C-alpha cells in the first residue's frame, strides 16, 4: 500500500515516521518546509502539493489541526480531491466535527474514494511504544484495508461503527477529560485548604479509587490548570463546542459532564 501523510506536527510526525520505518512507500507534504527536514534521512518522498501526494497514494492520512485545515487540504485545484485515484482511502486522524468527515466523504464518493474517520489519543510517547489508541468510523472492509498501516503505531484500533462515530467518541473522551481536570484540580485545592499538601494528596489518590488520567496530568499541582491552559486550553475549548453542537443537533442534553467541562474551561480562561 502506498501511503500519503499530511500533518507533521507533534502527533503526526512520529506516526509518519513509524509508517516509513515499517517499509510502506510513503509520500509527505507540508505547508512548512521545516516540518519535512526530520525526514531527510528516510525513504519518504516529498510531494509538491496535496494533489501530487494523493496521486501517488492508496491511503492518505490527515493529521492536521481542525475542520478548516481538512477543507483547505482537500479542496482547490491543488487539493487532495484534484489528484486522488478511484479506489483510494482518506483517513482523517484529526479531531474534527463528524459533519466535516461526512462532507468530505460525499465529495470523495463521487470520485470512487472512501473516507474513514480515525482520530487518535495518546500523544507521541504512545506512538513510540506502538500503543496509540485509534478510534475508527467507516465501512468495515475499508477499515481492515487500512489496519496494517495503523498497526505500525497503534494498539488498540477500535472500529466503532459508521463514519463519524470515531470523531464522536474522541470528542466525548476529551469532554470527560476536561471535566475531570476541573474536578481533580478542585479536589487538590480543597485538600490544600484542609491542610493536606497537593502533591501528597495526588500521590495517594493516584493509587486509589479516585484516580484519573486528568489528576496525573496536573502533576500534583493545585494550580496545574494554569499550566495546561496554555498547552491545551484552546483545543479542549474547540472540542467542547463541537460536542455541544452535536448534542444540540440531536436534541439531547449533555448533562453534568458538559457543566463540569464548562467550569473547567472557565477556570482555564477558555470559556466555551
UniProtKB/TrEMBL annotation:
Domain 6-phosphogluconate dehydrogenase NADP-binding: 2-161
Keywords from the UniProt entry: NAD, Oxidoreductase
BP-aspect Gene Ontology terms: organic acid catabolic process
SUPFAM superfamilies: 6-phosphogluconate dehydrogenase C-terminal domain-like (SSF48179), NAD(P)-binding Rossmann-fold domains (SSF51735)
Record Pfam families: NAD_binding_11, NAD_binding_2
Single GO term (MF): NAD binding
Oxidoreductase as UniProt keyword: yes
Domain 3-hydroxyisobutyrate dehydrogenase-like NAD-binding, first and last residues per copy: 164-253
Keyword NAD: yes
Family annotation (InterPro entries): 3-OH-isobutyrate_DH-rel_CS (IPR002204), 6-PGluconate_DH-like_C_sf (IPR008927), 6PGD_dom2 (IPR013328), 6PGDH_NADP-bd (IPR006115), HIBADH-like_NADP-bd (IPR029154), HIBADH-related (IPR015815), NAD(P)-bd_dom_sf (IPR036291)
Active site residues per record: 170
Family indicated by similarity: Belongs to the HIBADH-related family.
Designated name of the protein: 6-phosphogluconate dehydrogenase
Protein source organism: Mycobacterium kyorinense
Lineage: Bacteria, Bacillati, Actinomycetota, Actinomycetes, Mycobacteriales
Amino acid at each position: 500500500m502506498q501511503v500519503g501523510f499530511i500533518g507533521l506536527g507533534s502527533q503526526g510526525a512520529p506516526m509518519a515516521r513509524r509508517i516509513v520505518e515499517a517499509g510502506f512507500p510513503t509520500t509527505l507534504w507540508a505547508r512548512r518546509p521545516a516540518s519535512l527536514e526530520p525526514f531527510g534521512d528516510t525513504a519518504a518522498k516529498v510531494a509538491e502539493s496535496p494533489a501530487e501526494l494523493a496521486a501517488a497514494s492508496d491511503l492518505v492520512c490527515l493529521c492536521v489541526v481542525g475542520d478548516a485545515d481538512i477543507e483547505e487540504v482537500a479542496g482547490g485545484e491543488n487539493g487532495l480531491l484534484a489528484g486522488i485515484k478511484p479506489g483510494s482511502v482518506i483517513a482523517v486522524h484529526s479531531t474534527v466535527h463528524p459533519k466535516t468527515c461526512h462532507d468530505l466523504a460525499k465529495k470523495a464518493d463521487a470520485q470512487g474514494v472512501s473516507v474513514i474517520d480515525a482520530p487518535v489519543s495518546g500523544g507521541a510517547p504512545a506512538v513510540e511504544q506502538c500503543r496509540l489508541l485509534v478510534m475508527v468510523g467507516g465501512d468495515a472492509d475499508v477499515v481492515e484495508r487500512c489496519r496494517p498501516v495503523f498497526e505500525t503505531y497503534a494498539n488498540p484500533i477500535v472500529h466503532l461503527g459508521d463514519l463519524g462515530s470515531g470523531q464522536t467518541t474522541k470528542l466525548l473522551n476529551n469532554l470527560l477529560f476536561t471535566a475531570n481536570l476541573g474536578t481533580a484540580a478542585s479536589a487538590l485545592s480543597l485538600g490544600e485548604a484542609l491542610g493536606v499538601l497537593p502533591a501528597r494528596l495526588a500521590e495517594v489518590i493516584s493509587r486509589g479509587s479516585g484516580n484519573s488520567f486528568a489528576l496525573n496530568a496536573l502533576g500534583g499541582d493545585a494550580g496545574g490548570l494554569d499550566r495546561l491552559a496554555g498547552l491545551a486550553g484552546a483545543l479542549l475549548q474547540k472540542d467542547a463546542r463541537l460536542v455541544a453542537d452535536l448534542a444540540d443537533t440531536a436534541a439531547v442534553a449533555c448533562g453534568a459532564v458538559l457543566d463540569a467541562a464548562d467550569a473547567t474551561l472557565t477556570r482555564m480562561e477558555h470559556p466555551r
